[in-house]
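Many introductory courses stop at the sequence. We go one step further.
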Amino acid sequence: MKQRTFARPAESLAGLDEIGPCAVCGHRGYRHQDVLWNGLVSEWELTEPEAAYINRQQGTQCLGCGCNIRSIALAKAICASAGFESTLVDLIATAPPDRMLEVNEAGSLNPWLRQFPGHVFASYPQIDLQALSLGDASVDLIIHSDTLEHVPDPMAALTEMKRVLAPKGRAVFTVPIIMGRMSQTRDGLAASYHGAPGDSESDLAVHTEFGADVWAMVMQAGFSRCEMIAFDYPAGIAIVARR
């Protein structure tokens, strides 16, 4: 399938010492180790700059809490969705009463999310984002991280999330985004799996490669507002979809 192109982000990334304070714990130090392997880079047809910021997204970690850029961006988005301008650790201290559903483990945030009083955890295959076994308007906050690309019908999943969210509820999530492209399905292409080299479990199969138009899918599913929250752009981007 031929990929359409979109405006490409800057090809250089700032040094680790230029990354701002962690949105999880507030620490300012980071370490990095590349995590992509050649096979996945080839399957994804990543350019060198694209591989660099995906590596940074997944392989750059806070020295304080151990969270990577992806999880830190998600934490920033969770706080922003609540109108809170400090860290996730500080948000926990306020004990917001949201009914929270965490689907799979949201990056490395699970130990912190479990501290919220309204937290409920569910993982695949016990829960299917395409057909949630929850009542209408029964949840205030849905959180997941790099899950939607593994769902066969992401539009059905987004529509289900909107259905179960209460008025003013929000879904906060990440997906891998290649900012220089538009989204595409992998239907008809060779199977590709995230995880580690050699992984071939069905739940790690990639069905959608998301691009800069991911916001449009959120709006098409019926959400009233979509916010893109950046931490160390373009490596860290999270999405807030408001009911």
